[in-house]
């Protein structure tokens, strides 16, 4: 339809508003500008922008004149009908229209007389929200107001869509920075080098699936040629499991500084995680003490397994299953005595996460224990770190183009032949 002189003046005003809205505002500021511009252009008392929340299929008042955040189903009331039909709705007498919800008027003490409700449609016909203008100062909204309102809504939809995209990008960049910090913290907790225990050689590696991971490992010297070995795997991937993993390491080091033994450390940390973690979260963990004078590894394995022990003299393997429940699964009231592995010259003790054992190639075949056994047996003369590197190389070769699905952690302790 054509517009009269008044409409032309209003459209010139809309162009001025559009140029103003081109500035780099945050979303709330942008919405406030849209509401204020709508009231001014249409000579109305109040305005509200409802944004569409597609995740919950709701319309949300993000900015409105004298209104707080309100959520309504996207198919309810006049606003919902406008959103569903993608059409303007002009109500000259709100209280004579059965679709009008009087609850907000009762809540605010305001009386709505007339209402213009316009859908905000973005790119590719996507629903951005709904613009609602209340109470024209003189009379009711007419056909010319509808024309002007639709023109304003079209411009507003574009700038709101842009602002939402900008807000999402900023949030994503902020999350990336937070993840980067979390990764730096987690990587900073890993051993800076391998420990030194007379007669032993050590190797280790951690390869997370995401920028952060739920796996961890640590070496904690205990004096008198004794070394605490820690390896764990918190359920899930990303920041949450990484925090759980870091928490376990921190609690262990505190427990050891306070003089806790193997059993005490395991029980206390387990019980604390039972209090701290949600019911569906836990940490599989190996707690072990390598005694370089006795040549033994005594350990508890909470849901972590199999634990590998290669006997160099006979070329045989022990694959120890988990000895108890994962950390945080249930309180420990009567923990069994730790298992003890005797390390003979040339023996290799390996803590290998299920990210290695269960690594699948493109055909769905897992890497498995047998390939680990073949690597260890055929490279028994190499260093502990060479064994770790060979495992990583072999699992990547096995996986081919398949994406790594789980965090990978390997800790190897080897008794030297000397």
Provide tags for this entry.
alpha+beta, 26% strand, Beta-Lactamase, 418 residues, 2 domains, Phosphatase 2c, domain 1, 10 helices, 5-stranded antiparallel beta sheet, 6-stranded antiparallel beta sheet
Outline the structure in words.
α1 (5-21) runs antiparallel to α2, α2 (27-42) runs antiparallel to α5 and α6 (239-257) runs antiparallel to α7. β8 and β9 form a beta hairpin. This protein has ten helices and 16 strands. By secondary structure, it is of the alpha+beta class. It folds into two domains: 5-167, GAF domain (Beta-Lactamase); 184-415, Phosphatase 2c, domain 1 (4-Layer Sandwich). A six-stranded antiparallel beta sheet has the order 3-2-1-6-5-4, with helices on both faces. It has a five-stranded antiparallel beta sheet with strand order 7-16-15-12-13. 38% of the residues lie in helices and 26% in strands.
Outline of the structure:
The chain is of the alpha+beta class and 418 residues long.
- Helix content range: 25-40%
CATH architecture of the largest domain: 4-Layer Sandwich
- Overall form: elongated
Oligomer: single chain
Distance between the termini: 96 Å
**Low-pLDDT segments, ≥5 res:** none
By DSSP, the count of extended strands is: 16
**Top-tier CATH class of the largest domain:** Alpha Beta
CATH-assigned fold name of the largest domain: Phosphatase 2c, domain 1
């Amino acid at each position: 339809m054509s517009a009269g002189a008044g409409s032309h003046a209003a459209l010139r005003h809309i162009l001025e508003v559009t140029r103003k809205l081109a500035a780099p505002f945050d979303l709330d500021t942008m919405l406030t500008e849209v509401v204020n511009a709508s009231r001014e252009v249409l000579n109305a008392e109040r305005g509200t922008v409802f944004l569409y929340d597609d995740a919950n299929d709701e319309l949300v008042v993000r900015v409105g004149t004298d209104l707080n955040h309100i959520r309504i189903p996207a198919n309810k009331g006049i606003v919902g009908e406008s959103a569903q039909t993608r059409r303007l709705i002009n109500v000259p007498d709100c209280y004579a229209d059965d679709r009008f919800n009087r609850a907000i008027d009762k809540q605010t003490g305001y009386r709505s007389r007339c209402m213009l409700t316009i859908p905000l449609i973005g790119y590719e016909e996507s629903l951005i929200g709904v613009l609602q203008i209340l109470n024209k100062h003189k009379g009711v909204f007419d056909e010319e107001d509808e024309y002007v309102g639709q023109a304003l809504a079209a411009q507003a939809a574009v700038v709101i869509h842009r602002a939402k995209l900008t807000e999402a990008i900023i949030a994503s960049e902020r999350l990336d920075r937070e993840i980067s910090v979390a990764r730096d913290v987690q990587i900073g907790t890993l051993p800076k080098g391998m420990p030194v225990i007379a007669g032993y050689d050590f190797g280790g590696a951690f390869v997370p699936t995401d920028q952060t991971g739920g796996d961890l490992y640590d070496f904690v010297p205990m004096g008198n040629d004794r070394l605490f070995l820690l390896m764990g795997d918190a359920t899930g991937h990303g920041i949450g499991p990484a925090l759980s993993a870091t928490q376990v390491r921190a609690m262990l080091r505190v427990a050891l500084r306070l003089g806790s033994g193997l059993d005490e450390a395991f029980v206390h940390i387990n019980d604390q995680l039972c209090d701290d973690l949600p019911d569906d979260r836990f940490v599989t963990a190996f707690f072990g003490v390598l005694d370089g004078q006795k040549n033994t590894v005594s350990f508890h394995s909470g849901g972590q397994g199999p634990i590998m022990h290669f006997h160099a003299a006979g070329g045989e393997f022990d694959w120890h299953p988990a000895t108890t429940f994962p950390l945080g699964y249930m309180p420990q009231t009567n923990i069994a005595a730790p298992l003890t592995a005797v390390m003979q010259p040339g023996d290799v003790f390996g803590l290998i996460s299920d990210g290695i054992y269960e690594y699948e190639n493109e055909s769905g075949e897992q890497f498995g224990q047998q390939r680990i056994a073949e690597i260890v047996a055929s490279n028994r003369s190499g260093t502990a770190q060479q064994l770790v590197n060979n495992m990583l190389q072999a699992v990547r070769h096995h996986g081919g183009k398949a994406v790594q699905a789980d965090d990978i952690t390997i800790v190897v302790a080897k008794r030297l032949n000397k």
